[in-house]
Amino acid sequence: MDDLELVSLIVDNEGPLCPFCLGSLIGLKLGNYPNYLKGLAMLEVFNAIESRKISSCVVCEDLIPQNIDQMVERALKKLRGIEFHSVKVGVRLPPNVIEREDRIRAKYNPPNMESVKLTLIKWLDLVLSSSTGKNVDKDPDALLIFDFSVKDVTLHLRPVFVYGRYRKLRRGISQSRRKCPHCEGRGCEKCDWTGKIAEGSVEGMIGEVMRVFFEAEDYVLHGAGREDVDALMLGKGRPFVMEIISPKRRTLDLKILQREINDKWRGSIEVLDLRYSDRKEVRRIKESSSDVRKLYKAIVEVEGGITDEELTKVEKILTGAVIRQRTPKRVAWRRADLVRVKKVYEVKARRIDDKTFEVTVLCDGGLYVKELISGDDGRTRPSVSEVLGKKAFCR
User: Fold this and answer.
1) Domain 293-394 adopts which CATH fold?
2) Which of the chain's termini has less CB crowding within 10 Å, N or C?
3) Angstrom distances, CA of residue 265 to CA of 62, 167, 205, 259
4) Confidence class of residue 111 from pLDDT cuts 50, 70 and 90?
5) What pLDDT sits at residue 182?
6) Is CATH 2.40.40.20 the classification given to domain 160-288?
């Protein structure tokens, strides 16, 4: 029995099928034509058009043909005013449609059958690509989910990623946005329904300018490590990638964006070297943050004062030292309680006055430098406090 005879038998035994469900039965046959068009052709061959007027499709009960045109119109309307260069469709079908399709597959085992879902995806990809002039891509700028369970279409826009470096020029700025105190992160009018407060954070200060620039819904900063809220970030700056969520604009001049950020936050933060990036670079900078050497500078105050001989002792003992550091008490609420082993490569100390000195530390990324100085009640060893036998702390 060939494919057409088998399909004819299925229609005779089970009842009429719409072009989508009928075409899916021979999806791998009759060349590369869309299954929907194959289904239309078979309806004419079987002279089944008249019966379709009095009986609905036994698989989808006419859910698909009765709603697909309106859903395509809805999808095209959602794409208006959006900058995108590629498109793709996903489909959700009600469970009872899939169950009826599976029953026919199990009973007749059509050798060239493709699923109704795949038939719809291929057809809708073709329709939307033709209507918009955009290519179909597996990782598209615009993904449209046709949900026939609720007869609606949802648009998902691929994020834009922007790489750069930031310098934090004044203290009191956290890296990440904090939870909105008014709604406890659930979202409210005070936080523009994001659940987070942008003010006073590197993420928020940079991200809000980018959100407006790209006409986006939200953003997430991915940094190569982090500094304390009361620390500066100088030198070449900290590498970061900003993930711009649901952007209506994609290809903009990042030199203009960089200038807008730096003009708005002059004296507080500065961004450098902005360029387009991708999700792979997010993984790279996060994985590399603990593998690179980092240079820190701190002002240290010592109870009981400090001598030149003691400064020399600090340099000698801590240069080249292997530090065993249990998760500091100040971050234990958000970090796993582990003992991390890091190396200090060089320590330089310069006296400021009888109680205070400036220390420069070259060390592995991920070392908590405040605790390298204070000792954190013995959780970090060795430390400046342990070497001196006196309490020392960052000022």
Assistant:
1) Alpha-Beta Plaits (3.30.70)
2) N
3) 58, 11, 8, 10
4) confident
5) 80
6) no
Predicted model pTM:
0.79
Specify the long-range contacts of residues 345-353, CB closer than 8 Å, at least 24 apart. 345/293, 345/319, 345/320, 346/319, 347/314, 347/315, 347/318, 347/319, 348/315, 349/311, 349/312, 349/314, 349/315, 350/311, 351/306, 351/308, 351/311, 352/299
Domains 160-288 and 293-394 share a fold: yes
Question: Tens digit of pLDDT for each residue in 287-338?
Answer: 777 678 889 999 999 999 999 999 999 999 999 999 999 999 988 887 889 9
Mean per-residue pLDDT, 38-67: 75
Locate 35 and state its tokens. Answer: 């299954």
Q: What is the DSSP string of 169-194?
A: -SSS-BSSPEEPTTTTTS--TTTTTS
Separation of alpha carbons 71 and 205, rounded Å:
39
Positions marked catalytic: 228
Task: Count CA atoms within 13 Å of residue 309 on its CB side.
Answer: 0
Contact (CB, 8 A) for 43 and 25: no
At residue 289's C-alpha, the angle toward residues 285 and 290, to 5°, is 145
Reported confidence tier of residue 52, pLDDT bands at 50, 70, 90? very low
* Domain extent listing, the chain: 3-157, 160-288, 293-394
